[in-house]
Amino acid sequence: MAAVNNLTVEVRPGEVLGIGGPNGAGKTTLFDVISGLTVADAGEILLDGQNILGARPEHICHLGLARTFQLNAGFDSMTARQNVLIGAYFGFRNRIFPGLRFGREDVARADEALEIVGMRHKANEIVKDMPVLDRKLLMIAGAIASSPKILLMDEPVGGLNPHEIDEVLVLLRKLCDMGITIVLIEHVMRFLMQLATRVMIMHHGEMIYEGLPAGLVRDKNVVDVYLGEGTSARLEKFLVKGDA
Ligand SMILES: Nc1ncnc2c1ncn2[C@@H]1O[C@H](COP(=O)(O)OP(=O)(O)OP(=O)(O)O)[C@@H](O)[C@H]1O
Ligand SMILES: [Mg+2]
Predict the structure, then answer these.
(1) Whole-model pTM?
(2) pLDDT value at 32 more than 50
(3) Which of 7, 23, 29 has the most ligand 1 atoms within 8 A of CB, as the residue to mutate?
């Protein structure tokens, strides 16, 4: 059985596409395919009209598509700035002879990314002992440091408390205002609904819903396989007035 099958979705500049669906639905696999970590057997992935299926992940990143991961990824023994520098250095353009000689430009881009996520004052701290929120913010900073046009985020608020979730919400709105197009996977539905301009729900590798967040809570299929009646009713209050 294919983890992702028969799925077509388009993201336009300036949009926030939110992706939901049960565990094992194929959401992360979809990101792996788009970002080049897993090559699909069939289909097309068009970035600005260019088919990037089969392209190397770093090439896709240089074309302006960055991503973050469901589990915190980072270099534990290094500082926050060094972690983000990796994104600034390798993610920005092709390095024919990668020698890790960071230039002033790379450092400036890394510091700017740290500033954007509110982590500049922790630039020299070692990552290992940082709390989950900081590590999530760092991963976002590393992605931003590659100057993406489009940013894929896999569960950016998984494991965070409600106050922290709101902080990330504000940050992601800022990224939108900076002109970055966002695609995010999230199980925290109120977060998804507050941020997304459009929502897609996956189940068994296929799309079972695509449309406005407002329609989601009333879609019988989505309520049956994913939300359940209780969650669906609770989410109604996050709908923007007039959406109904
Ligand atoms: N490397 C792999 N090899 C084989 N099967 C895999 C691999 N990675 C994931 N799968 C399977 O593919 C399906 C989709 O997994 P995926 O991680 O994409 O789900 P998901 O929607 O991201 O779930 P979650 O919400 O739990 O993160 C699952 O059945 C999973 O067990
Ligand atoms: Mg996943």
Answers:
(1) 0.91
(2) yes
(3) 29
